[in-house]
Amino acid sequence: MQIVILNDAAEVAAYGADIFSTQLQRKAESVLGLATGSTPVALYQELIRRNREGELSFKDATTFNLDEYLGLEGTHPQSYRYFMNEQLFNHIDIDIDNTHVPPGDAKNPITACQDYEARMAAAGGVDIQLLGIGRNGHIGFNEPSSGLTSRTRVKTLTKETIEDNARFFEEGEYQPHLSITMGIGTILDAKKVVLLATGENKADAIQAMVEGPLTASCPASALQLHKNAVIVIDLLAASKLKDIEFYQHIEAENQKLQDYLASVASL
Question: Does the pLDDT at position 169 exceed 80?
Answer without folding.
Answer: no
